[in-house]
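Can't paste images in this forum, so I'm doing it all in text. The chain is below; anyone willing to post the predicted structure tokens underneath?
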Amino acid sequence: MFGRRGKREDAAAVPTAGPCLVVSDDTDTIAVLEAELAAAGHGNHASHDITGFLSLPKGADASVILLDLPDLADTHEQLLRRLAHAGPAPRVIVISSGSNALAARFAVRAGAADLLERPLAPGAVADALDRAALAPAGPGCRITIVHGVAGGVGATVLALMMAGELAGRATTVPGKVALVDLDVQTGVAGLYLDAPGGHALAELLDAAERFDAEYLASVLLVTQGLRLFSFGDAAHADDPRVPYLFVRVMELLEPGHAHIVVDLPAHARPWTMPILAAADDIVLVTRPTVPSLRLARARYDDLLAGGREPRQMQLIVNRVRSGWQGGTLDRKDIARALGSDAFATVRDQPAGFEEAANLGVLPQSVG
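Text version of the structure:
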């Protein structure tokens, strides 16, 4: 798909038989992780506290790093810099004290293969190692689909935040992360970032069969460190050439980018499944209402039935009120409606999001 490897076919598990590195300032956590590694058959490992890890010489790391993230953010930037020079593309598994935006942000910036929460469930480390084995190592383009299961769940804001974090990583060259907004009805990502016009969707459709990478580069905007494809035109949204245009755009973007974040609209279209089929990761975004949660579960089950692996998908419940106060659903209610307790939450921050939209900047740039 998109002119490169058949993603699912040769994303066969890459063995994690190389040494594992455990990094934690907590001796009890180190003991738990070492026991989990031994139970999973990974006896080849070493352990360091944070200071010891930061002082390791470059290139002295393992193929997999289990990083127990400190609650305080004082050392996070140092850890990110150290991971950026961690040798030949180790797969990083971040472990945090709970579901929080700070840990999620660190995991994205670190390019982590997984994010686990303490206390660790039995077998969680083994499962994470299996998922990490499927994560691509070394250079190559990773495609992450952010898919709102219904309108108004905030998927575009999350896609912008994810792309912005990836573009802000120290190891990323500006313009090497692309955000592809497939809502051609409105081009909402471009509106959010106050992206200047200059090219219309109709123009791209007319040129789709002849445009190359040079032409595409001339029509895409590089803003705030990322390359943006976002063109809204309701009059041409159902043009039969749209599917070809999307495939061509992805095909041309892949060779020159480290990561592509795709904002996929909720309403299914004929081109939806080919786009999903090419994804390395799928993030399903919903909100804490029973109908929306059930819709998310139905979409998740559809993807499973279509051959996707659970490890390739993440459920995010967006716009959860801080501390669950003032809401009618608690975490147990959400898990019951989803049919699973494997989900992450994002707190509702309407004032910050609105200010970012008014300023035309990425959400994490505000407050």
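The chain is about 35% helix and 20% strand. The longest helix spans residues 290-305.
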